[in-house]
Structure formats: structure tokens, C-alpha cells
Amino acid sequence: MIELIDVHKSFGKKEVLRGVNLKVVSGECLVILGRSGTGKSVLLKHIVGLIQPNRGKVIVDGVDINRISEARLYEIRRNIGFVFQGGALFDSMDVFTNVAMPLIENKNFSYKEIEDRVMHVLDLVDLQDAAFLMPSELSGGMRKRVAIARALVAQPGYILYDEPTTGLDPIISDRINDLMIELNSQLGVTSVVVTHDIHSALRIADRIVLLSNGVIKVNTKRSDVWDVDDPEFRDFLRVFKALKEIE
What we know:
39% of the residues lie in helices and 25% in strands.
């Protein structure tokens, strides 16, 4: 459903992606793990066409999205929900309007249809009572859930999460992890999550890949992570073990 083939990307003289090859299987939750600054978010933005590669192909639903018109790319994007790292909410709009924006921009929905869909996804993320609050009145975890609701409202086949637990305390992070697991199982969407949080990765993933030095170094099922020999990947696992011992 999603495939990256020999994707290279540089910004000036800085090489970020150096030949990424990756397939995302329908219905799975794929976690892209890596240290901060390794290009995880850059890779994610390639999938939705916000960034174009210097070389290589990005295939979504059988289409090379870098060789199509803006109109066709917009159609493909309508099937992709994107949860930005900071939430990217509009501070001047209440929660209801923030979540409704993808449907308002579509222009094919009546107000009643928009209202029903918005309240449904707010119920999924347990925020129905917050519909008419402003973003400034929300906690960090609530803002993240609003961003997830907005990604869901157009009923996409894919949801891309950019560091969904960054900046949240451990309890709220676990709630966000549980929510992502529930949404994957209930709605059957295909999820791609970029993170450096190994605890989150081991909670939510069907499969984990490690992005390092611009390439995919590890590609493993969650059940097989303890058999991986890669030193950098083992460092992440040691952090996880240390945290579990503290608990």
C-alpha cells in the first residue's frame, strides 16, 4: 500500500535519507524508530508528498506520488490522516472547528454530516465534552487527542503519526499509546508512527524499523526484537529494560 524505493533526500550539503527502502503492509502499525535528528519526520513527510525526494520513488496505492498532478496528489492525501508532532491546531478556532476542517475544505458535506462525524471522532478520543473549548484551554495530552480526531474525521485508510508521545508525561503517553492501539483494531487503518520512544514502540507496533544514518538498518516484527543484533537497536532495548527495572 505504501512503498519507498531508494529514496534519497538532502538539504544543501546535509544528506538526510541515503537510499531508504521500505514497505508498509495493509492494516499494520509500523513504527519507524530512531534517534532525534535522524530524518524520521522527513521520511514521514515524503509519504504524504509534503517533501519530494532528490532521487527514488514514493508509491501510495500503486501511484508514484512525485509524478502526478497537484489535483491527483490532493485526492491521495484525502485518504491519509497526519498527526503533526506539535498537534498543529488552529489557536483561533475551537476544538469542533479544528476537527471539522478537513470536511469543511472538502465542501461535499452538509453541516449535519460534519457535526455527526466530528462528534463521533471526538467520542472515539473521549473528548466530546471539549468540543467548544479553545486549544489554549487544553492540556498537552488533550491537544494530541484533538489532533488524532482531526486525522480520523475524513475516515482515511492511513494515519501517519509524528512523535505522538513527545513532550507528554508517562501516564498521558500510555493513554495515547492505548488510543492508537484501539483505533488500529477498531477502524482497521494502516498506521505509520515515527518515534524515538522505545517504550511506545514496543507497546503499539506490529513491526519496527530502525532508521539510522539515512537508511533502514533493522526491520523486525515486534515479537522478534530481542533477537536483533544491531548495536544501536540494542541500545534502545537497554533503555527499555532500565526503565522497566525502575518501575
